[in-house]
Amino acid sequence: MEHPVKDVRGVIRTLCQGSPKEQEDTLNRYFTPSASFVHPFCRVPHFDKIYIPGYGFLNSREFIQYIYKWYKILSPKIDIEVESAVFDQRLSLLYVNIAQTFSIWFFPFHKAPVRLVTVLHLIEEDDFKNNNSNSSNLRRRLPNKAKNALTKQESDDNDSDYTDSQEGPSYASVAAGDATPEKTEEGISMVHPPNPSNPVAVENAPIADASAWESGEAQRPVDGVNGGKSNKRYLITKQEDFYQVNDFLKFLFSSPGAWVWYAIQLWNSILCVVGVLLLEPLIRALGIKREGGGKPKWT
Fold it and tell me: What is the pTM of this model?
């Protein structure tokens, strides 16, 4: 995904509503081979290239593919809507708020309108490729002298990278998209104009033409913010689906199951009130501490 917030809608719709071939293509395109999957009813850990006699090599992405296919078999017609998506660029987490209606076809009256939050753990495609490159295999085949030379070269490169990182990205490199802009406390991408004391956040800023940029009157969008093009492409390494208890009970017992849990939740709330009313006199008898003449604070 080049623009996770925009692209995730199509990815989720295809996985839940697409044909088996579309599901497979989407998983192969957007998920890493060793991706994991966590759901209240299913769990697939990270694994890759496990040999299964009579089948061949299996990875966790293929396992996830079978889960989505079974999901579609149980409910051939799924209504799903991605209501919102937020990308935490610092942690590479994509939070997606989803509403869906799941209906098991062989249960005529089964209908489960549920809400969930899906958290997708992302990794930049370049980082993934670097982590899975053949450099480790090459190192094992090198003679000792070549290994030492390679290690020394890597050390020199790391020292050079560290020196460059101390200086920070230049304004020109950020503008050209060659450096990652800094973030505000709210996570908004920023670029630094020539005066470092006056950073300008570009979110929701109008996109200026080239002449305005050359004159320094406007800031160019960076890293996919406000329509700016991003050179990064993200892959999914883990999917976690979070449901309220009453929502995932709808999968098993439809709405009656949710009503039972709803009643249990109300009962537990009443118990909280009763517990405080019964124990408050005892707590007050043990000691009361007042701060600033306000309400009593239990000690």
Answer: 0.63
